[in-house]
C-alpha cells in the first residue's frame, strides 16, 4: 500500500505509520515541521526498511494541501490511501477563555480538515479509488459539557465522512472514520484517564485492520463502541445532569 | 503522586511529550520508564513536575555494518530488542529488565549479566546530545566535552537532560540463548563458580537463597548463557511472550519470612542437582522478571526497596559471606537475591560496578528497614564497597560520601555545568544535599 499520513510524527499517527512501515507499506509523512518530519522518516526507515517520503503540510494553511499531496504521490509513485490523524485539541475551559483559539480549533478540525479530505478525495478518485481514513472522535457523538466546541467540530467531520462514504463508495473511494476514545498520548497528557483508556499501539493495530477491510466506522479501543452506544441512548435530561 | 519501581510515592507528576527538546527547556529532572527502585526518578519537593521521556522514542540512525545506533532518549530497550534481535544485533549490556529507556540506561550507567566481560552501558556509548542547565544543547563524547560525558554516565540525570544517545550494538549469531544452570551448595563455591565461568561465558549471574544459614549459607542457582549459534538455534525468531499481570496490590502479609523461605526452598530444590542446559527464549534468560507485569505489587501497600552493593575483590573471599551472615542475622528476608561478579570500573564517574561481587536483594519496607540498610551500608563501607544509586532509597548522605571517593570530582563537574543547581531529584536532595 502507498499511503500518505498527515500527523504521523506524534501520538496515534506515529504508531500507525510505524505499523505500516514495519509491514512494508510505502509511507509519506505530511506535517508542519520539515525537521520533525525528517526525523520521523529516518525512524520509519530503520524500523521498516523502505524509503519514506516527506512533505510539508499545515492544516492551518490550505494552500499547502494540494502541493503536499502532489509531492507525496510523486515520492511514492502513486497513492492508495490517505490518513489524517492531525488536529487541534484544547479543553472546553481553555477554549471558552480564548475565543481566538476556539476559532482556530473549529477552522482546523472541521473546515480545513474537510478541505484537505476533498483534495485527497479528488486525487484518489482520479486514480480509480482508494482509502481515505480520518481520525474524528467519540467527542462528536453527543453534545457534552466537557467537549462542546471540540465535539461540535468532530460531529461535523463525522457527518461529512459518512456522506462521503455514501456518495463515493461505489466509485471506489472507501472512507474510514476512526472514533478514538480516550487514548494516552501527548495530546491527552495531564488529563485524568477514564476507564477503557487506550494506548496508541492498540489503536494503530485496530485502525490498520479497518483500513485493510474498508470498515466505514471504527471505534478505538473497541470498548468505546459500547460506551458510546449507551451515551447515545441517554435521554437529554440525563445528559444535562451528568458531568461527562 | 509519583513513585519509583519500589512503589513508595512522593507528591509529583510527570509531563510527557514527543518533543523532548521543548519539554526539557526548564525541567528539573527527566524520567524514563520509572524502573529505578528508589527516588532517583522522582522530583524534589519544591519542583514536583518531571519531564517524561518515553514518547521521545525515535530511532535517528542505524548502521548495519558497524551496529552504530542513534536514538532519542525515550527509546526503550524493549523496542530495541524487538527490532534488532531478529536482525542480528543485541544491546551491549543485559540488565535485569527491558522496560527501560536509553536515557535511563545512560543516567544509571546500567550493567548486566555480561559486566565481567563487557562493562557498563557507558563503555559502549559514543555520543550524547544533552540540554544542560543554562538551556544550551551540547554534544559530548569521550573526546569532546569529556568531563560532562564521564559525569553523565551514572550521573542519575543530574548533569543535564539526555536528549539523544548514540551507542554500538553487538552482533549476535541468532536471537536465541544457549543456557546452562547449575545448583550450587554454598556461597564460597558460588563465588568460585562465577569466577570460573566468567572467562568462558558472556552472560553469568546467580540467584541465591539468602535465608539459608550455616553450611548452606548462600546456596543457589548459577546461570550461564551465550547467544546460540545459528546451527543450534530454532529456525524461527522467538515469538513475543505473553505477560500476565499481578492485578492488584497484595496485602502486606503475603511476603513474610515464612512465605519467602518456602519460595526459596522450592526454587532451589526444583532445580535438579548438577547442571541443566538447553536453548531458551532470550526473554526468559535475560529478563525473567519481565514475564510478570506489575510484579512490584507483590510487596504490599508499603512497597519495597532494593539493596544492591558491590564488594571489591580486594576485600577478600569472605566479604560476601560476611555480608550474608549480617543479613540473615538481621532477619532481612528477600525473595530475590541476585549475585554477579563484576569486571573493572568503567569511565562513568559515579558508575556503580567495580571489580568484585555484586549482591542485590529486595527488601519489603518495614519499620526497621532504615536500620537494616544502615547496618548493611556500614559493612559495605568497611569492605571498601559501594551501593547502586538506581536502587537506593535509604542510604544516608555520610554513608554515601564514605563509599564514594569520586564524589568531589563528580560534584565539581556538575557544578561547572549547573552552578545554580537547577537539575535535581528527590534522591539528590536526600543524599547530596541539594536544595529542595
Description of the molecule:
The complex is a heterodimer of chains A (244) and B (436). Chain A is an alpha/beta fold and 244 residues long. Chain A has one domain: Rossmann fold, CATH 3.40.50. Helices cover 51% and strands 15% of the residues of chain A. In chain A, strands 3-2-1-4-5-6-7 form a 7-stranded parallel sheet, with helices on both faces. In chain A, strand 6, helix 7 (200-213) and strand 7 (217-220) form a beta-alpha-beta unit. In chain A, helix 1 crosses helix 7 and helix 5 runs parallel beside helix 6 (148-168). Chain A starts with a strand and ends with a helix. By secondary structure, chain B is α+β, with helices and mostly antiparallel strands. Chain B has 13 helices and 18 strands. The model of chain B has no long low-confidence stretch (mean pLDDT 95). In chain B, strand 4 (59-63) and strand 5 (68-72) form a beta hairpin. Chain B has 2 domains: 13-172, Uridine Diphospho-n-acetylenolpyruvylglucosamine Reductase, domain 3; 177-401, Vanillyl-alcohol Oxidase, Chain A, domain 3 (3-Layer(aba) Sandwich). Chain B is globular and about 60 Å long. An 8-stranded antiparallel sheet of chain B has the order 14-11-13-12-16-17-15-18. Chain B has a 5-stranded antiparallel sheet with strand order 4-5-9-7-8. Chains A and B meet through helix 2 of A and strand 1 and strand 4 of B.
Amino acid at each position: 500500500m502507498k499511503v500518505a499520513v498527515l500527523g504521523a510524527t506524534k501520538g496515534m499517527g506515529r504508531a500507525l505509520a510505524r505499523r505500516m512501515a514495519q509491514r512494508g507499506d510505502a509511507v509519506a509523512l505530511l506535517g508542519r515541521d520539515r525537521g520533525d518530519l525528517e526525523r520521523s522518516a529516518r525512524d520509519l526507515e530503520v524500523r521498516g526498511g523502505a524509503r519514506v517520503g516527506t512533505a510539508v503540510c499545515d492544516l492551518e494553511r490550505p494552500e499547502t494541501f494540494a502541493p503536499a499531496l502532489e509531492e507525496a504521490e510523486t515520492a511514492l509513485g502513486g497513492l492508495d490511501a490517505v490518513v489524517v490523524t492531525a488536529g487541534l485539541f484544547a479543553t472546553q475551559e481553555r477554549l471558552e477563555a480564548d475565543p481566538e483559539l476556539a476559532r482556530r480549533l473549529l477552522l482546523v478540525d472541521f473546515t480545513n480538515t474537510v478541505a484537505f479530505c476533498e483534495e485527497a478525495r479528488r486525487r484518489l478518485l482520479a486514480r480509480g479509488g482508494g482509502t481515505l481514513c480520518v481520525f474524528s472522535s467519540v467527542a462528536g457523538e453527543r453534545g457534552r459539557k466537557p467537549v462542546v466546541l471540540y465535539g461540535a467540530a468532530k460531529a461535523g467531520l463525522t457527518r461529512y465522512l459518512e456522506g462521503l462514504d455514501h456518495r463515493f463508495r461505489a466509485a471506489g473511494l472507501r472512507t474510514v472514520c476512526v472514533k478514538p476514545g480516550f487514548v494516552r498520548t501527548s495530546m491527552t497528557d495531564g488529563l485524568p484517564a477514564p476507564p477503557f483508556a487506550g494506548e496508541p499501539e492498540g489503536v494503530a493495530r485496530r485502525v490498520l485492520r479497518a483500513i485493510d477491510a474498508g470498515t466505514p466506522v471504527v471505534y478505538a479501543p473497541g470498548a468505546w463502541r459500547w460506551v458510546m452506544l449507551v451515551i447515545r441512548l441517554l435521554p437529554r435530561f440525563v445528559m444535562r445532569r451528568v458531568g461527562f | 503522586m509519583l513513585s519509583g519501581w519500589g512503589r513508595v510515592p512522593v507528591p509529583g507528576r510527570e509531563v510527557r511529550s514527543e518533543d523532548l527538546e521543548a519539554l526539557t527547556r526548564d525541567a528539573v529532572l527527566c524520567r524514563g520508564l520509572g524502573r529505578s527502585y528508589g527516588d532517583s526518578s522522582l522530583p524534589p519537593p519544591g519542583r514536583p513536575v518531571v519531564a517524561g521521556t518515553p514518547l521521545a522514542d525515535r530511532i535517528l540512525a542505524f548502521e548495519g555494518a558497524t551496529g552504530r545506533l542513534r536514538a532519542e532518549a525515550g527509546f526503550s530497550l524493549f523496542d530495541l530488542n524487538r527490532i534488532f534481535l531478529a536482525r542480528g544485533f543485541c544491546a551491549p549490556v543485559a540488565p535485569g529488565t527491558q522496560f527501560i529507556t536509553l536515557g535511563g540506561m545512560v543516567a544509571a550507567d546500567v550493567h548486566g549479566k555480561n559486566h565481567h566481560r563487557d562493562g557498563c552501558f557507558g563503555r559502549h556509548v559514543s555520543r550524547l546530545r544533552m540540554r544542560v542547565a543554562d538551556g544550551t544543547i551540547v554534544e559530548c563524547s569521550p573526546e569532546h566535552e569529556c568531563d560532562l560525558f564521564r559525569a553523565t554516565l551514572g550521573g542519575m540525570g543530574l548533569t543535564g537532560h539526555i536528549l539523544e544517545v548514540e551507542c554500538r550494538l553487538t552482533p549476535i549469531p541468532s536471537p536465541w540463548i544457549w543456557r546452562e544452570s547449575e545448583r550450587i551448595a554454598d556461597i564460597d563455591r558460588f563465588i568460585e563458580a562465577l569466577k570460573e565461568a566468567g572467562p568462558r561465558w558472556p552472560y553469568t549471574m546467580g540467584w541465591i537463597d539468602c535465608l539459608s544459614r550455616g553450611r548452606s549459607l548462600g546456596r543457589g542457582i548459577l546461570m550461564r548463557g551465550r547467544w546460540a549459534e545459528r546451527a543450534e538455534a530454532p529456525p524461527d525468531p522467538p515469538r513475543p511472550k505473553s505477560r500476565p499481570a499481578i492485578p492488584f496490590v497484595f496485602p502486606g502479609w503475603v511476603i513474610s519470612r515464612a512465605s519467602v523461605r518456602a519460595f526459596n526452598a522450592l526454587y532451589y530444590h526444583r532445580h535438579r542437582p548438577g547442571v541443566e542446559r538447553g536453548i531458551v527464549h532470550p526473554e526468559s534468560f535475560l529478563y525473567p522478571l519481565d514475564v510478570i507485569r506489575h510484579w512490584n505489587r507483590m510487596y504490599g501497600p508499603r512497597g519495597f526497596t532494593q539493596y544492591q552493593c558491590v564488594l571489591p575483590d580486594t576485600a577478600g573471599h569472605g566479604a560476601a559471606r560476611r555480608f550474608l551472615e549480617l543479613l540473615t542475622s538481621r532477619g532481612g528476608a528477600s525473595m530475590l537475591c541476585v549475585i554477579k561478579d563484576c569486571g573493572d570500573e568503567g569511565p562513568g564517574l559515579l558508575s556503580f560496578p567495580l571489580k568484585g561481587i555484586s549482591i542485590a536483594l529486595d527488601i519489603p519496607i518495614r519499620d526497621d528497614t532504615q536500620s537494616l540498610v544502615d547496618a548493611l551500608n556500614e559493612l559495605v563501607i568497611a569492605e571498601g564497597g559501594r551501593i547502586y544509586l538506581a536502587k537506593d532509597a535509604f542510604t544516608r548522605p555520610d554513608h554515601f560520601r564514605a563509599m564514594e571517593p569520586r564524589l568531589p570530582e563528580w560534584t565539581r563537574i556538575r557544578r561547572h555545568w549547573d552552578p545554580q543547581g537547577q537539575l535535581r531529584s528527590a534522591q539528590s536532595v536526600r543524599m547530596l544535599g541539594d536544595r529542595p
